[in-house]
Amino acid sequence: MSAPARIPGVHEQPAVRAAAGLLVYLMIGVYFGVVLIRSEAASWYRIQEMFRFQSFHMYGLIGSAVLTGMLTTWLLRRSGARSLDGQTITVTPKERGWARYVLGGATFGIGWGLAGVCPGPIFTLLGAGVWPMLVVLAFALLGTWLYGALRRHLPH
Prior knowledge:
This protein is mostly helical. The protein is about 65% helix and about 0% strand.
């Protein structure tokens, strides 16, 4: 039995579409990285100023990100937006309770304070040539793995 005839361009189409989609995500990521560097959101000094209440800069950035997130979440819920593959985008409501949010926020805050960077700018700083961020990346990955290993024992 021979293989079915291949029609040029038909079987390769999903792969080309996936590659184009990844390229779009890469370009958006590079743009976001440039914005993080130019806005000084990835600056250890700006983060230190924020934690010492010496500057409004980071609070303004974080506040504008929270407002943007609230607005886009509201728009997604109201508009019935669809993903590229046609599925309706839904935003699942947060679970009630405080323990998981306090523990998660404290863990995130301790890591942010110790490393001087939240997870997003790690790759941005690596792209800017700040090689000590490799240590931060290694421990971020270790923490992610540790969470996965201990997840069933943590409050959810």
